[in-house]
Amino acid sequence: MSGGVDSSVAALLMQHQGCEVIGLTALLFGDASAAGPCCGREGAASAAAVCAQLGIEHRRVDLSELFERQVIERFIGEYRSGRTPNPCSDCNRFIKFDRFFELARAWDCELLATGHYARIVERAVGHDSAPASQRHLLASARDSAKDQSYFLACIRAERLSLIRFPLGELTKPQVRAIAAEAGLPTAQRADSQDVCFMANRTGLAQLLSWHHGELPQRGPIVDEDGHVLGEHPGAVHFTVGQRKGLRLGGGSEGLVVHRVEPQTNTVVVAQRDAHPIAALHLSDVVDMAPGLWSAGEQALLRSRYRQPLWPGRIEQGSSVGDRSRLSVVPLEPQYGAAPGQWCAAYRDGVVLCGGIINEIEYQK
Known about the structure:
The chain is of the alpha+beta class. Helices cover 23% and strands 29% of the residues.
């Protein structure tokens, strides 16, 4: 329970289902952090007030060192390498759906419930040599505007049967209405915005200064022929496909970031549609629906949050049977994918697999 309305209503709905509920708040930030209102002491106090009203136990666990190592440091490291990290996915795979399970086992809890907008569905999955069996699968939320399944495309398949997403069938207005009707103090609490540990207008410059004692350095913005078009305030501020912040003036219409070169602190720009993607090569792949898909099959893909799904083909990894590395090939022109982001594959609303975009191959 982060202290917001979503996790508060998730606890309430699990209680309504007859579950004995323990509210868990992970303290992810130190007192000197510039983090937002969730997952810190302010959020813990808010979650404790909800638990007191619901008559359930509330526990706090300090995971700030783990969060610093697995989320914040990874975030900074990826940007310094010219890549675009996805800290929400890292938090889910290393904290919420990993460490939380260790705590659940230690406390003899049977299920883990969160306030994410996603669903767990059951489908019969069969094999040629074995009868069909029921399998728990991750699926998109009913409310497509709030769907968070993209950030959850990193959960180990065997854990899906132990997870509940009580908000998966609801919209945000419905969630707030349930909270208001129950008189929960979080009913009108503001939603978290952007990256949780960069709230209060904290930027990458401040984050680098606090954690590494360095500041981004100004450098050139060049076209693909090396002609200098302008100057940037630090390459870490830019990601592939970005237009905002280039400030190149007249004649630069249609130019976006094509790549970031951290070794020379250079941002290279090109026309948005100059480099259609031939393939996205993925690492850290998680097979979320074993037996439901095979390499060579088509699926719908998403390579950044809120991006419309696009058709593609999932291809085999570097060796036969290697599902830690896969590639996806667009079946219609796609642009602007960024190394470091996650790519998730869907079929009929179910997440088949997810992985980190490690390399981008462009059409020649």
